[in-house]
Design a protein that fits this description.
Layout (H helix, E strand, L loop, with lengths): L1 H13 L3 H22 L1 H16 L5
């Protein structure tokens, strides 16, 4: 396992295009998260509204 990590570290530091791959991966992750949030925005808002109602209904003793 340590050899695998060392090999991955060597490849990422030795390649000239490693930073480009990293940027592409980050952009892909951000786009996937943004797409999921956009698609499920109504469900998320409904959940937050219900949660707010539940929290507001709690009584502190």
């Amino acid at each position: 396992m340590k050899n695998l990590f060392n090999r991955a570290k060597f490849v990422m530091t030795g390649e000239a295009g490693a930073s480009n791959i990293e940027i592409i991966v980050w952009i892909s992750v951000v786009l996937v998260i943004a797409t999921v949030l956009f698609v499920f925005r109504n469900a998320i808002m409904d959940f937050l509204t219900r949660a707010t109602g539940q929290v507001n209904g709690l009584q502190v003793q």
